[in-house]
Design a protein that fits this description.
By secondary structure, the chain is mostly helical. It folds into two domains: about 100 residues, DNA polymerase, domain 1 (Orthogonal Bundle), CATH 1.10.150; about 50 residues, no CATH class. About 45% of the residues lie in helices and about 5% in strands. It has eight helices and three strands. A hairpin with a 5-residue loop joins β2 and β3. α1 runs antiparallel to α2. The longest helix has 30 residues. The N and C termini lie far apart (about 100 Å).
Length: about 180
């Protein structure tokens, strides 16, 4: 039933959903939201998870997206005509467009500088991801603690050498008696 997906009606999309094993979603997707062939091809996982659809079953979301991606792969010309890359399942998006896990292209996200040398990205789902161009803070902490340990080790060694040279001879100057321990015994 593949044919020209772009010309599918709502009923044909419903038939396709039933054929693929998604009969439970025909009412929601076709009758309530009037998904036709074009809108089916542009459907993303983000669309399935967020309002107004808000599908709750993860397995169904993933399986439905696999079927939609198969349709997208079979109709690259229609996707290109609609302004989408012709290979949405590849990380590079086929036409040099990088795709995010929610189905949006990287060019659809807003980039904001955080003033610390990193870049913060806001996605259409409201979440933000920070992309640092600096070294990870854990590496800085490790390097700083290594420098600290080296300085402390060097300083302690130097002090021990000086003290050892300045301590008087034990035979000439015996240690003072310990008053507390001598009384307890």
């Amino acid at each position: 039933m593949v044919g020209n997906v772009r010309s599918w009606t709502v009923k044909q999309v419903g038939r396709w959903l039933r054929d693929e094993g998604f009969s439970d979603y025909v009412e929601l997707l076709c009758n309530k939201h009037r998904l036709d062939g074009t809108s089916l091809l542009t459907l993303t996982e983000f669309d399935l998870r967020s309002p107004p659809l808000e599908l709750k079953v993860l397995g169904d979301i993933k399986r439905l997206m696999l079927c939609v991606r198969k349709l997208q792969k079979q109709n690259p010309d229609v996707l290109e005509e609609l302004g989408f890359a012709h290979d949405t399942h590849s990380p590079q998006g086929g036409a040099g467009v990088e795709w995010l896990c929610n189905g949006d292209s990287v060019r659809d996200r807003d980039s904001v500088s955080d003033g610390l040398g990193g870049e913060q990205f806001s996605y259409s789902n409201g979440k933000q991801k920070q992309q640092n161009r600096r070294l990870d803070p854990e590496y800085w902490k490790t390097a700083l603690s290594s420098v600290y340990v080296t300085l402390v080790f060097g300083f302690t060694s130097f002090v021990m050498v000086i003290v050892h040279e300045r301590v008087p001879d034990m035979r000439t100057y015996p240690p003072l008696p310990d008053i507390f321990l001598d009384r307890c015994v």
